[in-house]
Queue: 3 jobs
Job 1
Amino acid sequence: MRTRCIYCDEKYDYNNSLIDMYLSDDMLCTKCRSELIIKRKRTKLDGLKVTSYYPYEGLIKDLLLQYKECFDEALCDVFFHHIKDEIRFLYHGYTLIPCPSSRSKKERRGFDHMVTMCGCLKMPILDCLYMQDDISQVNKDQRKRKRMIDNIKVKEDIVIPDKILLVDDVITTGSTLLGAYKALGKDKLKAITLCFVNKDAHSDKFQL
Amino acid sequence: MKCPRCSNTDPNYFYKGSRGYYCRKCIAFKRVLIKEEIEPEPYTISGDGEYQLAFELTPFQKEVVKDLITSVKETDVLLYTITGAGKGDLVIPLISEYLKEKKRVCYAISRREVVIELAERYKRAFKGSKVVKVCEGYTDELYGDLIVCTTHQLYRYLKLFDLIILDEVDAFPFRGDEVLNNIALNALNSDGKIVYSTATIDEEIEKLMNKRPLRVLRLDRRPHGKPLVRPKVIVGPDVILYMVLVYIMYKEKKQVIIFVESIRSCKKLYHILKLFFSVTLVYSSLEERNINIQAFKAKKYQFIIATSVLERGITIEGVDIVIFKRFDKIFNKAAIIQMAGRAGRSFKDPYGKVYILTKDNDKEIKGALKEIDDANKVYLL
């Protein structure tokens, strides 16, 4: 039984519920969790169906930044916690393929943030993609992000299953997902991302 | 286990990641591994450390400077002065001593705006040394002869400094923040010393004083020798307070800083008052905050509506102050003393006016008035 929220460090308010107290494995307190409001968005990228869950703003953005930029591995299970049952039900029998991040960042973090994040979904994970060149997407405009499409490759000697679910953290222009889609060369692919960038709120410059 | 950065020992805050245990108490400053060996950046002091002041220090200031330089050799120091006593200038001879001995010095303060202003002032004072400012928006260059930074940025400099001057330790967010306190202590090397400076002592500062041996140096006089301005308190309902505010603005010939408690009231008041007066605004998240402050200093506007961002460290010559206090908890005693201390700072205009417009003459206001009266007692002796 956890006593404090993993993010805000406040004491849990269990609302006098024994179920909450003993059965819930949510590491966020009710106040933080209530700030994460799911707004599903479905997009189609060259035939690839993508479902995104949260707008990239507010607490989910802060959590992702702390996880990715401050290397706070302890947060890995909070992101998919509320949607894991839905994902496991809708994509039963699928194998998760996390989108790759740049090699240098992976080395600095000491962990692959997407693979660790997907761990809580308890589905088979195949880490078979890599980036050929070390391109960071931070502060890149749309044109430069498009280079990512040709930059993602599949590791050699790996058998790719038929039912694949691509997973990424944030969809901005969709270039990483498209790159992975192209590299895998399979038709029956589906993709999910945790967040989507609300393009109306940004100009041509996106910041992750 | 102990965090090398924030000295946390509470096991609940340690998490075992793929690289080993790390501390989550100070995770906002990026992960630091417990087993990590932190080597300080081997930068050297290249400047000569010579300084030039635009004016001569008063005999009272010189006495404190002398005490400060001798005390720091033995122990940490708390420089307890009234607002506008010239703390920023008092430490210049001390910084110079350290730079001449090729030792590393840092001046840290909570407010970003003050960092920018002080760095410019020190650049003018230390012409032969490299002064670097490190705060939000200025993090490309991290090392120089003298580093002026926000208290948050001290996390970058573990075990590095021979001297840290921690200004306004009674200010948010440093006050009472154990993580920031420990980060500051861990930015010192093994022989390093800290000079704390503040205008108000409370229980949080007393806690600091109990951590390491500390000598308190007091200075109760402003350089121009005139007492602190005693605020005039006007109590009334909201409508009356707004009417009084408009009346003061109408009658006022000098520039005025109007302090309000929230960003919301700052914006609201600005939109109404800009229809009738030459007014600008400033709050922490405003992108043009530096432009607005510079425009006010250049006397392009007569009035500036500000939240607590202008509460400390800022010197604007010849201004009067209006403190618009509508709620109980936001402007505490220390904040009121600091805001009132923005008035009467210059030699040309040592007498300013300070008004507190409030719904309730509460203990914070009474406490602030008492402290100002106590500080002014030296002039009666």
Job 2
Amino acid sequence: MDEIQMKMLHEVAELDSLPVGAYNIRANGASAARNSTANIEIVTKTDKSGIDIIIKPNTKNESVHIPVVISETGLKESVYNDFFIGDNCDVVIIAGCGIHNCGNGDSAHDGIHTFYVGKNSKVKYVEKHYGEGEGRGKKLMNPTTVVNLDSGAQMFMQTAQIAGIDDTLRKTTAILADNAKLEINESVMTTGTQNAISEFTADLNGENCKCNIVSRTVAKNNSKQHFTSRLNGNNACSGHTECDSIIMDSASVLATPELLANSTEASLIHEAAIGKIAGEQIIKLMTLGLTEAEAEEQIISGFLK
Amino acid sequence: MLELKNINYEIDGKMILENINLRIDDHFVAITGPNGSGKSTLAKIIAGIAIPTSGQILLDGEDITELSITERAKKGISYAFQQPVRFKGLTVKDLMRLSAGKGTSFKELCNILNEVGLNAQDYINRSLDGSLSGGELKRIEIAMIFARSSKLSLFDEPEAGIDLWSFQKLITVFAQMVSKTQGNVVIISHQERILNIADKIIYLKKGKVEKYDTKDIILPTLLESVDSIN
């Protein structure tokens, strides 16, 4: 991998060398490095582009890194990654995509990740998207995440898209069985004329399943954001969705939380708030010696943390 | 040392502060007076949050009238808000670090929190948002000011929003912290117990300094006037 690709790898997965455990590093549409372990097997798909990640039951305290980097202008790809996680596992999965586009052609990565999480397993899934490069070509990402949680399974998902992606449509759907738990924390920042759409749908089918979706976003300049979050409460379950946005300059933010209860025992809550940075927050930080710009930066980075 | 010379502050044709002349060089000075007398406005003018219509502000002889909030903070003015500001995402640790500066160790930050009656372990990583009570936020606000150890620390009614039980404890903490602080401490307060530990008291009324003298001279006259009202 070249220097640019290594930098992208650092940005999206905080990797400066090959990680410990299982990994598959994809660079410009091809596998650049791969490692399977005794408990985690990574297999190339035969019918379409992508990989299967198969994690044996009872695998604990292991990790999988599957970062993607693109530095070739004009490269467009759709990649299907399926995760088969056995029962009683406790694993961390680090994904992420970095695009460096200094040419005139649009570069795009559409990652479709499908998770089958076995009974009583715990998964932490971290996904970071990053774009850079001064070319006229756009940096586009359309991630789709499909989560199937078996009974008692838990997934904690953390996604961040802080800089450089021109256009994104992020779709996340989830189906929760009895006692399953899904926690999603999303951070998005858009600048310039960027456009970000994020759609969540969770079917809370199981008894006592729980879902909490929290989206924190910052929209600057002329960028646009649309957040939709739909919770379908089909059983005795609890669901909470929250969208909190800071709006600046001439940006535009639309938040559409939706709740559907099909059971009297479903307890569903949504919260949505959009507003500018409070003047008193900036003044407080200025009284600590920060300039107005530094204060704004601190507030935003804290908000998106 | 802080000097205010002929400070006037007018808003919408109404004089909020009128011809304020003060020289603050004692270690601990309290500002008191009825509601609406201009106490908070005076503190904001010192911190640079409000700009006086006319007059001059000097810190250790240097004219700071035209300096911004940030520049004054860097010169050594700290200001504890009456209503502490909440931040989504920023933690107690973040704010304490910003207050204390890079050279301060994590242990020192924890010690300051412990001193204001907050168990650092329980609070250091908490977000400064709605999950903290008014009293907790107030203590953190006070801790932030002590962490800065400035030339001039201004506290705007540190007792406001704190329940009576916590207040008793806070006064003790305050007295201890003030005795350790090197610079000048100015506190806006209505509380006799705070006024009682001050070196000097400024009594503001209708935007003017009505009295400014040692605690021993001013406090009895204030208490007398309260008694006569009662």
Job 3
Amino acid sequence: MAGPLEQFKITPYAEMEVAGVDASFTNSSLWMVIVVTSLTVFLVGGMRKSALVPGRWQAMVEMAYEFVANMVKENVGREGKQYFPFIFTLFMFVLGGNLAGMLPYSFTITSHIIVTLALALVVFAGVTLLGFMKHGAGFLKLFVPSGVPVPLYLLIVPVEVLSYFTRPISLSVRLFANMMAGHIMLKVFAGFVVSLGAAGILGAGAAVLPFAFNIFLVGLELLVAFLQAYVFAILSCIYLHDALHPAH
Amino acid sequence: MDVEAAKMIGAGIATLALAGVGIGLGNIFGSFLSGALRNPSAAPKVFGNLLLGFALTEALGIFALLIAILLLFVV
């Protein structure tokens, strides 16, 4: 029986090397392509015959759009409108990756820290560059909270700087660890079912319990898949807000 | 002490973080319920914040699990 960590194994399908870097087409790449393709089909297909009164498919696309649009409006403000495409792409990609991982025999792309760290670093670098482009040196006001007595700066500023630089780490680890832990849990309980079922008639009866629990866990994991995509997008919105309004 | 044994003990100690997460999650849902029972009409508005708080707190527990896994399999 495969161990609970086996599902995260990366297997290359086509070996490739670009300038000494291993750039093989792996199962992770394959699932990224699947996620992006199905998202494109979902969004473009839903809006192909856009009607004033939306059908079922179009309503789903519009719901996704409005959900993210509201999130950006509430957390970034009106001037966040021009960053909506980025947040929307981020949210849909993470959500697609999380949900695709719930399919049996699939691979969860967001359960690898390299994927989530790359996404988080893009957010971090983009937000930092944007802050400096919009406010110049005034962006550094972000690290000096207003209303704090001057002697406390010695303590507050290093803490603020540190918390700023740990953002990409906490953002990526939260997503990857959640997905990894959830999938390990599912496989551990699935393992209980198999090993109990192999232990005779009494064991097979008892195997109903972990099986039922696993069904509950699948529901929980679907919730977590959505929630973590939501948290990832909303934290990106909050970071974007900080970059646009550094003096808080 | 044997390094293997120390790793296992460390992984066990890492699960203590669940106490803090339990307190945090209990606080979030308890506060939400008491607030929602006082003013049920305002409850749907903060449901999104409830889920956000739940996800952020739960992530801390998973950080502890990550440390346990790192101790057992990586270090």
